[in-house]
């Protein structure tokens, strides 16, 4: 059975319209018309005797009073008496009754009877209006009850003593997902989570037994779609006039959002507690009026503080004597708002020394006086230990770096001395070999052709060996020393080198193009050697090209400016590019192009000395492009 709504209208309950619904002119007009019609009908149907004619307007008076109320009824009485006395019998307009005593009693009796009729009708109508008004109030009150029941913010149900649902409002239906027609076939046990049925039934038994007048509990309903709905249930018992239990009224408040918030808050608190434990943080508040500090977390469990409530003076005694003056100086200033309270100090707990980092903010009254401090204390003992170890390690590391730097400098000095010694010692035997070979050739012009070729090979090998020694020394030289950065016009350097190459080989027809004003910050001597190697390399590998072309230009790649030397020479296979910048490694045969394989290795050393990068891009027979960067600093 479900609640039924009754339409709520202003005229609900009116069985008949009231005379007050009609305008006055209509009510009085009908009274006059009815009275005139009654008198006319009597005169037309039968002659009127002296007494019988007084009954003529009675029906008109009754109808006038019923339709128009008391006023029209009295008007009909008065008009009827005038007509009866003066116009129903001839001569019309004169008093029709000759006997004045008879006239007096007839008129008096007629007036009294009509007044009783009109009064009775008026009283009946008044009582009828009261009854209709009472009926409207009852219907209105019933509608208000139904509206309250149906549209209440809480779910409301009527349940019989066995638990069967008699009726439910829309709020409860939305709460559990069932329609009213579905709920009347269910009991509250059918939609309650099984674990919560027992407590509900025990309280219901106490309610039915008279041990309590109502009860409230939190329980869970299972929604029609399967999810759980937490509610607060308040149940009251309605009894019959005989005192026997009739039915139960249940008010159901949805607690799902509240439970979700409580779960989220509980999860947040657990996570916060875990975070505080992991970070060794304790929250506290200090009442500045009482001078007491109260922990907001169980700080003694992870900060080794003896108690969770103590006086500010007691806390000061725990602080290391060397740090106590700093705390005592900062705290009053922070209380007055003159400084932020943020400090690190040592505390002595259980015979051990701990480092604490403390921050606090103050709640103040309207006058700015501090009332309470809210703060956090973090155990930073481990961090301080690590900082001390790092400081000690840094000191040791700095000393080791100084020792290694000194040893490296000594090694470089020794290497430089060794290099010069090797160069000198190797050059002397080579000069002797080359000299004796030359002497043999000059002193023995009659030597056969084979011997002459042998002497030529000896002299060529010694010369090659000398060039290799010079290349090693030059490579070693470019790897040492400090880079002196200055403004260098790369375009001017390239122009001069091209002019020298053109003078050295005037038979070569090489087209060269240089981007103007390529300004860089670099070591002038090193940048000169770099461009010498790159341009000589391009000049050499374009020797077999009929229309040789070499370009010097710059470009921006990924926001970084590169300086490039490009040619249309022999090129090389990028699969073998890993050997390109290694000393004495060559990608072409000696009979194809002369050289020692030291130029590009030297160029790479110079670029690296400038903290830059040298890279190459090429294809066999399509030339090569060497690009390098020269970062500032």
UniProtKB/TrEMBL annotation:
Keywords annotated in UniProt: ATP-binding, Kinase, Membrane, Nucleotide-binding, Phosphoprotein, Transferase, Transmembrane, Transmembrane helix, Two-component regulatory system
Mode of membrane association: Multi-pass membrane protein
Enzyme class: transferase
Residue spans crossing the bilayer: 25-45, 57-84, 104-124
Main localisation: membrane
Residue intervals of the Histidine kinase domain: 421-633
PAS domain sequence ranges: 141-211
Catalytic function, reaction form: ATP + protein L-histidine = ADP + protein N-phospho-L-histidine
Pfam families the UniProt entry points to: DUF4118, HATPase_c, HisKA, PAS_3
Domain of life of the native organism: Bacteria
Compartments, record wording: Membrane
EC number: 2.7.13.3
Signal peptide segment: none
Ranges of residues in domain PAC: 215-267, 339-392
Gene3D superfamilies attached to this UniProt entry: 1.10.287.130, 2.10.70.100, Backbone structure of the membrane domain of e. Coli histidine kinase receptor kdpd, Histidine kinase-like ATPase, C-terminal domain, PAS domain
Name by which UniProt lists this protein: histidine kinase
Organism: Hydrogenophaga luteola
């Amino acid at each position: 059975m479900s609640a039924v709504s009754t339409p709520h209208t202003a005229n609900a309950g009116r069985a008949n319209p009231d005379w007050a619904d009609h305008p006055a002119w209509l009510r009085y007009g009908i009274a006059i018309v009815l009275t005139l019609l009654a008198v006319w009908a009597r005169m037309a149907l039968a002659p009127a005797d002296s007494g019988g004619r007084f009954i003529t307007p009675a029906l008109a008076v009754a109808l006038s009073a019923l339709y128009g109320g008391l006023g029209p009824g009295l008007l009909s009485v008065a008009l009827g008496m005038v007509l009866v006395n003066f116009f129903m019998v001839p001569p019309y307009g004169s008093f029709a009754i000759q006997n004045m005593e008879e006239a007096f009693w007839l008129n008096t009796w007629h007036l009294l009877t009509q007044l009783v009729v009109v009064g009775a009708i008026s009283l009946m109508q008044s009582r009828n209006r009261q009854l209709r008004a009472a009926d409207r109030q009852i219907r209105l009150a019933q509608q208000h009850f139904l509206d309250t029941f149906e549209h209440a913010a809480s779910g409301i149900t009527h349940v019989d003593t066995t638990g069967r649902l008699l009726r439910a409002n829309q709020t409860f239906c939305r709460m559990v997902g069932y329609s009213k027609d579905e709920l009347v076939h269910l009991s509250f046990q059918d939609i309650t989570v099984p674990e919560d049925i027992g407590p509900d039934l025990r309280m219901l038994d106490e309610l039915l037994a008279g041990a309590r007048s109502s009860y409230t509990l939190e329980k869970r309903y299972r929604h029609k779609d399967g999810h759980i709905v937490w509610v607060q249930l308040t149940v009251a018992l309605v009894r019959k006039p005989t005192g026997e239990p009739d039915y139960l009224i249940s008010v159901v408040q949805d607690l799902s959002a509240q439970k979700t918030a409580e779960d989220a808050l509980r999860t947040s608190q657990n996570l916060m507690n875990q975070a505080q434990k992991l970070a060794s943080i304790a929250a506290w508040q200090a009442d500045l009026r009482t001078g007491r500090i109260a922990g907001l977390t169980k700080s003694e469990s992870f900060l080794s503080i003896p108690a969770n409530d103590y006086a500010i003076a007691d806390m000061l005694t725990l602080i290391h004597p060397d740090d106590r003056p700093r705390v005592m100086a900062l705290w009053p200033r922070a209380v007055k708002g003159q400084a932020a309270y943020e400090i690190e100090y040592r505390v002595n707990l259980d015979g051990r020394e701990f480092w604490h980092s403390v921050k606090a903010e103050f709640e103040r009254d309207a006058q700015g006086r501090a009332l309470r401090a809210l703060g956090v204390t973090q155990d930073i003992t481990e961090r301080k230990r690590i900082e001390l170890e790092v400081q000690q390690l840094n000191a040791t590391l700095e000393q080791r770096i100084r020792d290694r730097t000194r040893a490296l400098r000594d090694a470089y000095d020794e290497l430089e001395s060794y290099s010069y010694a090797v160069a000198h010692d190797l050059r002397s035997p080579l000069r002797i070999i080359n000299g004796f070979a030359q002497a043999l050739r000059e002193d023995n012009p009659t030597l056969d052709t084979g011997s002459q070729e042998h002497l030529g090979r000896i002299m060529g090998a010694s010369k090659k060996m000398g060039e290799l020694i010079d290349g090693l020394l030059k490579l070693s030289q470019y790897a040492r020393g400090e880079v002196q950065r200055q403004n260098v016009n790369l375009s001017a350097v390239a122009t001069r080198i091209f002019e020298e190459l053109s003078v050295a080989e005037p038979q070569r027809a090489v087209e060269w193009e240089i981007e103007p004003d390529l300004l860089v910050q670099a070591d002038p001597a090193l940048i000169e050697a770099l461009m010498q190697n790159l341009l000589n390399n391009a000049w050499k590998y374009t020797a077999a090209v009929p229309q040789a072309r070499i370009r010097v230009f710059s470009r921006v790649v990924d926001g970084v400016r590169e300086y490039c030397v490009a040619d249309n020479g022999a090129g090389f296979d990028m699969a073998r590019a890993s050997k390109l910048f290694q000393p004495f490694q060559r990608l072409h045969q000696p009979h194809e192009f002369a050289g020692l394989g030291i130029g590009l290795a030297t160029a790479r050393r110079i670029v690296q000395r400038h903290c830059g990068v040298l890279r190459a891009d090429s294809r066999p027979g399509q030339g090569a492009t060497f690009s390098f960067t020269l970062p500032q600093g």
